[in-house]
């Protein structure tokens, strides 16, 4: 089974892109499944089910969504194998821009939209910087000049990635993405496979449920600013 991770900021159009790509792959005779990782809630399960795509949704709740992703991805791969998928797409929302769910030896796609601003590619971090393919959405509602500047900024951050404009509503551009996904490596298990980027070291009193503010309430890994 081929495995692909797709990650991007909230509302960048990840689900629309996955749906468009899945339609084309299904037309080519491939059986496609999706795992959706999110934080507190998601309506995307209904969108996938309506499109006839088998889907599992995991909500991190009070946990870091990327840590939750890593704790569950191997079981997700085994679900995909048992289901007989040819391709399993794993959609994950990146929220803090410090983490990256991308995995070594697994095709990594970052979805980012033109409306997020020309400085956004520099702020997204490893989720974009370590991707193999960067999909840029919402190009139909900005000017040609804005599209070119945005794509240039993406290439500055990740010059080795394939940069593809895709319209999640019409599917324009999805064919090129199909080809990248069909070239993804076969994956039977992720046991002992490494992430492409280490997650932030964050073990402080607030990670453990503390809600009070104050120096005396802070223990563990704490970083403070210099306001002198």
UniProtKB/TrEMBL annotation:
InterPro entries: CobW/HypB/UreG_nucleotide-bd, Hyd_mat_HypB, P-loop_NTPase
SUPFAM superfamilies: P-loop containing nucleoside triphosphate hydrolases (SSF52540)
Domain CobW/HypB/UreG nucleotide-binding, first and last residues per copy: 4-164
Protein origin, superkingdom: Bacteria
Any Pfam family the entry gives: cobW
Protein name listed in UniProt: CobW/HypB/UreG nucleotide-binding domain-containing protein
Protein's organism: Desulfuromonas versatilis
Lineage: Bacteria, Pseudomonadati, Thermodesulfobacteriota, Desulfuromonadia, Desulfuromonadales
């Amino acid at each position: 089974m081929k495995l692909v991770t797709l990650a991007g900021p909230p509302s960048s159009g990840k689900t629309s892109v996955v749906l468009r790509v899945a339609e084309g792959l299904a037309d080519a005779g491939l059986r496609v499944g999706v795992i959706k990782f999110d934080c507190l809630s998601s309506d995307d399960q209904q969108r996938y089910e309506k499109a006839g795509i088998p889907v599992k949704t995991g909500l991190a709740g009070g946990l870091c969504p990327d840590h939750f992703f890593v704790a569950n991805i191997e079981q997700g791969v085994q679900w995909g194998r048992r289901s007989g998928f040819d391709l399993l797409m794993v959609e994950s929302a990146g929220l803090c821009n410090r983490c990256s769910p991308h995995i070594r030896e697994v095709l990594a796609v970052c979805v980012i939209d033109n409306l997020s601003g020309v400085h956004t590619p520099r702020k997204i971090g490893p989720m974009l910087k370590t991707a193999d393919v960067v999909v840029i959405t919402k190009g139909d509602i900005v000017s040609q000049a804005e599209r070119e500047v945005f794509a240039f900024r993406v290439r500055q951050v990740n010059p080795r990635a394939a940069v593809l404009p895709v319209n999640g509503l019409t599917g324009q551009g999805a064919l090129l993405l199909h080809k990248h996904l069909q070239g993804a490596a076969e994956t039977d298990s992720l046991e002992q496979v490494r992430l492409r980027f280490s997650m932030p070291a964050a073990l402080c009193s607030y990670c453990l449920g503390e809600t009070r503010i104050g120096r005396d309430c802070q223990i563990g890994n704490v970083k403070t600013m210099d306001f002198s």
